[in-house]
Amino acid sequence: MKQIQNYPSQRVGIFIDVVNLYHSAKNLYHGRVNYSELMKTLIAGRQFVRAMAYVVKSEGVIDPHQYNNRKNKNNYSNQPSSSSSEGAFFEALEKSGLELRVKDLQIFVDGTKKGDWDVGMTVDAIRQSSSLDVVVLVTGDGDFVPLIEYLRFGAGKIVEVAAFGRSASQKLQEAADRFINIEEIPRIIIKH
């Protein structure tokens, strides 16, 4: 990995695989991520364009349309209540400056569950890359290596990956221009 310089004029877009981050923080540290600190670290004095957080709704309490289009909050009759821990979590993400992309957890007949955003996150990163200089992927999932290669070599973007070093794919770390080990960010973990 080469040394990449930060410049205040760089336009930064951030794409966060919340499910991946949530489980890493929970399993490694028995805590949760401080998204405000994470955002501050990832922006690093550069020009912030957009940050998207990809979440999976499992409680059945929240209408996903209210999070995918928040232009007029008064039009939503199904606002999350404070009794929903999932709703409170989603609100905290938004307060950290993140735009939520929400989808329902899929539960199959055999009981298996699926709730990943790999394709959606990839499509959004490619779509938005033309207005960005730096794409920050917050995930430890090695499935994003082809996206990194496309953004770096096909679109000429700087790609940074932020993840927990202990659980992030080694290939993912090597493919990025810069790897940010979330474990090294001060005040990043909030203990339960």
Features:
7 helices; alpha/beta; two-stranded antiparallel sheet; 6-stranded parallel sheet; 192 residues; Rossmann fold; 10 strands
Description:
The chain is an alpha/beta fold. It is 33% helix and 26% strand. Strand 8, helix 7 (170-175) and strand 9 (178-181) form a beta-alpha-beta unit. The protein is globular, with a radius of gyration of 17 Å. Mean pLDDT is 86; it is low at 61-83.
Helix-strand sequence: EHEHEHHEEEHEHEHEE
Q: Remind me, CATH topology of the domain at 11-55 and 110-191? A: Rossmann fold
What's the arrangement of strands in the largest beta sheet? 4-3-1-7-8-9
What gyration radius follows from the Cα positions, in whole Å? 17 Å
Q: Helical region count?
A: 7
How many strands, which pairing sense, and closed or not: the largest β-sheet?
A: 6 strands, parallel
**CATH homologous superfamily title of the domain at 11-55 and 110-191:** 5'-nuclease
Tally of strands: 10
Give the terminus-to-terminus CA distance.
35 Å
Which descriptor suits the 3D outline? globular
The percent range for strand residues is: 25-35%
CATH architectural designation of the domain at 11-55 and 110-191: 3-Layer(aba) Sandwich
Instruction: State the low-pLDDT regions, or none.
Output: 61-83
Q: What's the helical proportion of residues?
A: 25-40%
Report the mean per-residue pLDDT as an integer: 86
Secondary-structure-based class equals alpha/beta
* Assigned CATH class of the domain at 11-55 and 110-191: Alpha Beta
